[in-house]
Design the sequence.
């Protein structure tokens, strides 16, 4: 299942509320494992790429490719870039 149609709205809200980290580094990219995307709350299927991001507190977040890009964009905007 691709990222949800309202992924941008969900991710923007999660960045604003602090539910997603404001900084992180992509630690790996691989095929999905049916785990839930932390950005859009839908499964990342085996036929899709899954990005794992590690926050400063060592917590890992998983994203669809599109959701990882949206997360980066909204965190940059929140920091005034």
Sequence:
């Amino acid at each position: 299942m691709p990222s949800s149609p309202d992924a941008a709205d969900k991710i923007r809200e999660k960045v604003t509320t602090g539910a997603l980290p404001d900084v992180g580094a992509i630690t790996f990219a691989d095929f999905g494992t049916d785990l839930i995307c932390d950005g859009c709350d839908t499964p990342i299927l085996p036929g899709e790429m899954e990005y794992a991001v590690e926050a400063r507190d060592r917590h890992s977040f998983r994203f669809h490719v599109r959701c990882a890009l949206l997360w980066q964009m909204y965190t940059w905007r929140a920091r005034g870039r």
Observations:
- The chain is about 30% helix and 20% strand.
- The chain has one domain: 7-78.
